[in-house]
Write a structure and sequence with these properties.
It is built from 7 helices and no strands. It is mostly helical and about 190 residues long. The protein has one domain: Phosphatidic acid phosphatase type 2/haloperoxidase (Vanadium-containing Chloroperoxidase, domain 1), CATH 1.20.144.10. Helix 6 packs antiparallel against helix 7.
């Protein structure tokens, strides 16, 4: 790679980081309000693995045949998306906003490393994609909840906006891949 290309990429990375910090501050500081602190603190909990697994257990137990099938597909999407997120967190080693942004608010337990991508957002988006495919009339609400989980991660000071954006893309992709896998799995007729 030539020196000019390298300078361009470094400059691009610096501009993206500057924009990331600007949007982070706008949400994290500009939207600060006691009511939002409570709402976003609760919303961010929906992205915790144990909460998501508990909801899937309820879907499996009380959702009938569609709920059981959907919960099983969600387990696949949850596992794959979570694994991808963890591998990227370890590989990218992006620090959390608290080590980069001097004037920020943090609500909750502070973690300093493993910012990219947002795991809460990744699994929430994957689950939203799978459940929305089975329960189409709830699709808008499911995607809205996943988006709010992502937004809450910025609001509470845990992630940069690009961490959330990447988590959304990874989650939607793995959710769709899980649905595609279900369509071609052995023992099921496939027209293609």
């Amino acid at each position: 790679m030539g020196e000019a290309a390298l300078r361009f990429l470094i400059g691009l990375g610096e501009r993206i980081q500057a924009a990331d910090i600007l949007v982070f501050r706008w949400i994290n500081l500009g939207w600060a309000h006691p009511t939002l602190d409570t709402a976003m603190g609760l919303t961010t909990q929906l992205g915790l693995g144990w909460v998501q697994l508990a909801l899937l257990a309820l879907l499996y137990t009380f959702g009938g045949p569609t709920g059981r099938r959907t919960a099983l597909l969600c387990m696949l999407a949850f596992a794959v998306s979570g694994l991808i997120a963890q591998i990227l967190k370890e590989g990218c080693e992006r620090v959390r906003p608290g080590l980069v942004v001097a004037d920020y608010r943090f609500l909750g337990e502070q973690v300093l490393y493993g910012s990219f991508p947002s795991g809460h957002t990744t699994t929430s988006s994957a689950l939203a994609r799978v459940v929305a495919a089975a329960y189409r009339r709830w699709a808008v609400l499911l995607y809205l909840v996943a988006a709010l989980v992502g937004l809450s991660r910025v609001y509470v000071g845990a992630h940069f906006p690009t961490d959330v954006l990447a988590g959304t893309v990874i989650g939607l992709f793995t959710g769709q891949a899980s649905l595609s896998e279900a369509l071609v799995r052995p023992g099921r007729k496939h027209n293609g």
